[in-house]
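Lecture 7 notes: from sequence to structure.
We start with the chain below.
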Amino acid sequence: MNKNIAIDGPAGAGKSTIAKRVAKEKQLIYVDTGAMYRAMGIYFSRLGIDPSDAAAIAENVGGADISIDYEDGAQQVILNGENVTGLLRTEEAGNMASKVSSHGPVREKMVELQQKLGREKAVVMDGRDIGTVVLPDALLKIYLTASVEVRAGRRYKELVEKGEACDLEEIKKDIAARDHADMTREISPLRQAEDAVLVDSSDMNIEEVVETIIGLYEEAQL
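Predicted structure tokens for the same chain:
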């Protein structure tokens, strides 16, 4: 039986934090799509392919097999049979992932790999197009959002706590600009799936959001 949860929403809505908590509570597999893209970055780096070479990217993307496993409760990312978890947070992996993810064939391959995970395991997956493209048949779809002001405030607080200098108004502008870019991009734009439940966390804390989604999930299984 399909037990998957798809969580979409704009930047700063807390999707990953919520998705991880829900997965842990319901003993599901949290799929970190960002980590999968970083693994793809490692794959192309090892092949020595220029990330601007669209033809080479398209020709070689089919050779990447990326999956998510858990070991002692910790996520492990497997690239062609090799555990590359310890290599994911390098600057090289991040930069390469950012560059190759703009290629249509890479996005198509990632959707294929993510759908495979959704067929093989009960997962919680978050992103921009999970409910609309990746897991259109998910048991529960959530569109998690919050006002620009609230999302900017959360980001501001996070940066201040890290001791980083920042400007609240600039953060608001950045978030609004990213919302526009995500919602108007040509490939898989951010939008609420027709059958997704809207959860606005502007006036909710993390525990309240998690409880809300778990309640909706349990109802969906009845």
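Points to note: The chain has two domains: 1-13+130-222, 29-121. The mean pLDDT is 92.
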